[in-house]
Amino acid sequence: MVRVSDEVRRLRKRFEARAEESQIWDAVQLARHPDRPYTLDYAERLFSDAFELRGDRAFSDDEALITMLARYHGQTVVAIGHQKGRDLAERTRRMFGMPHPEGYRKAIRAVELAERFGYPILTFVDTPGAYPGVNAEERGQAGMIARSVLAFCQASVPIVATVIGEGGSGGALAIAVADRVQMQENAIYSVISPEGCAAILWKDAGQAKKAAYAFRPTARACLDLGVIDTIVDEPSGGAHADLDASARLLDTALRLSLAEAEAIAPAHRRALRRAKFRAMGVWGVADEPTNQDF
Amino acid sequence: MTPIEVNVERVSGDEGGGRRHPNTCPNCRSHFRDDELRHSLRVCAQCNHHFAVGAMERIEQLLDPGSFVEVGGDLRAADPLAFVDLKPYTDRLLDAELATGLGDSLVAGSGKIVGRPTAVAVMDFAFMGGSMGSVMGERFCLAADLAVARRMPLISVTASGGARMQENILALMQMAKTVGAIDSLREVGVPYISVLAHPTTGGVIASFASLGDVVVAEPGALLSFAGPRVVEQTTGEKTAPDFGRSESNLRLGQLDAVVPRRELRGELAKLLMLFSPAEDEPTGDNEPLPTVGSDDNPIDRVLGMFGLGRKRG
Hints:
By secondary structure, chain A is α/β, with parallel strands linked by helices. Chain A has helices spanning 4-31, 39-46, 88-93, 101-117, 134-138, 141-154, 169-173, 194-202, 208-215, 219-224, 243-263, 266-278; strands at residues 49-53, 65-72, 75-82, 121-127, 159-168, 180-184, 188-190, 230-232, 283-285. The model of chain A has no long low-confidence stretch (mean pLDDT 94). In chain B, strand 6 (192-201), helix 6 and strand 7 form a beta-alpha-beta unit. In chain B, strands 1, 3, 4, 5, 6, 7, 8 and 9 form an eight-stranded mixed sheet that branches. Chain B folds into two domains: 15-51, no CATH class; 52-276, 2-enoyl-CoA Hydratase, Chain A, domain 1 (Alpha-Beta Complex). Classes of the chains: A alpha/beta, B alpha/beta. Chains A and B meet through helix 5, helix 6, helix 7, helix 8 and helix 9 of A and strand 2, helix 4, helix 5, helix 6 and strand 8 of B.
C-alpha cells in the first residue's frame, strides 16, 4: 500500500532539490557572466586615486593578476585582484584571469609592500584557477601559490578578501586568506570547477550541473560552513545589471569588514587569522582509534 | 585429435585492459612476493622503481622501532555536504577505511629517527587518492602543534592527488589551514622537512608540501600542480615524458634533492642532526668519516681526500 502523504512528501522533496539545483546553476552562470564587473571596474568606482604596481621583479608582468596602491576613503590601501578581459584580445592578454607563478610573485611583492608601510590589503578574487600550462608548472606554480598563501598568513596588516566572481581553487585561495572574507551573492567559491569535478567523479564533464548541486559552491553554503564572514548583496538580476549599484553595495560591505579587520590589535592579527582558518573543517571522532596494533 | 591448448604468459601486464598485480613492477614487470617488497622498502630490485608505500609501513621504514606515538587517530571525516556522486561520500570513506585500516589519508604523530625526536605527518595514497579533507588538515596541524610544543622538527611525507572534492570548499580551506601551521613553525623557529613521494599534486603541493625548509623527493615522483592529463586537455600543450617528475623539478630549482628510498632515513637523520643545536652534539661525532686508508696517519688522510690510498702491508 502506498500512503499518499509519503508520496507527496517524496515528490515535494524531489521538486525542491530540482529547484535548488537550478538556483545553484544560476549562480554559476551569473558568476561567469561576460558582463560581470571585474576588479578594475570596482577599482574605478571605489578608489579615488590608484597607481598600478606592475611586474614581479624577476620574470615578467602577469596581467591576469593586478596589484595597485590606491586611496580608499581617505587612506592608502594595497589592492590585489584577478582580472579577466572583456574582449577576446584582452582575455588572451590576461589569460582569462588565470595567473602564472609570476602573478603570485607580484602579489607577494604587494603584500610585502603593504606590510612595510602598514597599509591594509583589499583583495578581489575572480579566477577560474591558476593557469595549468607547462610553462607555469616549470616555473613552480604550486610552490608560488603556497608562498602566496604563506605571505597572506604572515602579514600583520588588516586584510579583507572579496570573492567577486569565480573563486576557483588554489589560484583563488592564493590571495584569499584574510581577516574578513566576503563573497558576493552570486559569486562561487570551490575547490575545483563544476566541470572539473564532473569530469573526475562522474567521468563526464557534461554533468557539471549535477556536480555543482552536489558540492554547492554558493555564497550561502560557504557562509553556512563558516568559510566566509559576509555575503555582499548584488542588484537584482546580478552584479552586471548595474555596475554602479554593485560597486555601492560592495563599498558598504567593504568599509564595514575593513573596519572590523582594523579593530583587531596588530600584534594579534596574524595569530587570530591563523586561528580563523584553523577552525575550518568538519569531522567526527571514532570510538576506537585505528592503528593500535601497530 | 583435439588441439592442445597452450597458455602463453603475457609479456605486458597491461595488455588487453588487464589489471596489473600491485606487486608487479609497472616499469620492468618483475614480480615480487609481498615480504620481498617489504624487505626492499618497496623498491624494485631489478630496475629501482619505487612502489607506493602505505603510511604505517613508511613510518616503520623511517622511525626507530617502537618510537611512534599517534595523535588524532580517532578523527574521522564527516560529510558536511551530504555529498553523492556516483557513490555517496560516506560509502567511499568506509571502503577506504576497510581497504587501508586508516581513519584518513594522513597519519600524524611523533617518534624518533636515530634517537632524535621529530613530529611526523605521513600520507597514504591508497586512502581516497591521498586526498586532503578536514581530517587530513586537522591531523597535519596536530603534528605541527606537537613540533611547536616540544620544539622538535616536523617531517612530512606526502602522496596525494590534491584536495578532496567531496568536501569542496572546506577541502580548499585545508590549504590555508596547513600553511597556517607552517607559519606557526616558522614563528618559533622549528624546522620543517618535506618529503615528496609519488604523486604529490594539486592542493597538497600548492600548500604545506612546498614550504619545507628543506624539500626532497623520491625518484620518479610526479610533483606538479596540474597533472599532465589536465595540462594537455585544458591547454592543448604536449607534455614531455619527464613532465613534473622529481628529476625535472630538481633541474628547475624546485627541490633540494632527489633521495632514493634506501637513503631516505639516513638523509633525514643527517638533516635532524644539522638542525639540532651545537651543544646537543655528542663529542667525537665531529671527526671526519673514515676515508680510504685513514689510520690517523696524516699522509693517508691527505691521500684519502684525493681519493687515493696507499697499499698497506
